[in-house]
Amino acid sequence: MDQIINHAVLSLDFWQDTVNYEGCTMPTGTIGCEVLNIPDSTIEKLDTPCNVLNQLLQGMNTGSVDMELLPQVQQAAGEIISFLQATPPFSRLNRSYFEQKLAAIFSEEYMEDAKAYLQLTQQEQLICALTGQHSKATMLVRIAQVLGHLSYSLGQYKEALTKYAERLNEPDYDRTPDGYAAMFGQFFKGEPTLSLDNPAWMTLTNASVQYVAAVRPGKTEPQLVKRMHYVSFVGMFRSDLFEGLCVGHAPKKCPICGRWFLTIDARHTKYCGGLAPGDQRGRTCRQIGNLRGREQRELADDHPIKAIYTRRMNSILQSTRRGKLDEETAAAMKKLAKDKMLRALSDHRYASTVYEQEMTQQALLKAVQKK
Alpha-carbon distance 223 to 78, whole Å? Predict the structure, then answer.
């Protein structure tokens, strides 16, 4: 049962400039950026089910368990699961697994165990933590805390980090690791405390760190990764966003749809790759943006994605002139390279993971020969 708070749920694996969560590998900062897009109205709707769980916790803090709350608690847990399933980044979690585990945790059996556990002295409770006794009670308390504090914590996260992201989003801002660090130092001033009027508290991660050999998704050999375990969802998202800033990844607001998306090293990136709202032809914000005129286009020649493509075109041309490539093979490689470049422009995940690797001349030649 303790798997509900193990590596798969409240932990992240960091490797170079990527993070792995729930079997998904993405650029570091992705999930922290996604939380910025959760509407305030959606978070407010969480208040009701979260308050039910907090009512249960308040009773436990005084040493009592109100069994009459059980039906309300079960309903509240179900509402929170529905929210998690429909809302990135929580939607990466396994819903059926959570439904089964939470149904067992918020049950009469666990509540009864909690009643007995809360009658123990503090010293006896500490002994239970070491021996594994009353594990049902400790699990109930732990999960109630994580879910009960969710709406409040998300609100606090958005309030502090949205303001910071807005500063980074200002025109002509230096979107580099040095620029992010400078803005971070200006925005989160002073020593970190838990005072609500001091946004520096957001720098506290409340996490433990391990270094482990793990097989990342899509790989066969283990790699050394930094695995961080958290006590709350929000601590995990905050840490992911800050780790992203360290490697040059930062949130940016799309001027067409108004949603936040993550930039990696593409300083000219202006629009996200999501579908443009209200566009009957199903075009992306990037496609719409690039039709707005030369002065508003993001895809200048020095755009990192296009720069890789341009370099490859030049190297293929040189190899052809030197007789190392025949005309037919060169033409196929150029077409394949252009296809990959266009895909990278509309698929951020592809651009930030394997695009550059697949654009080497050797990789293109191998792919063409295979076909």
Answer: 37
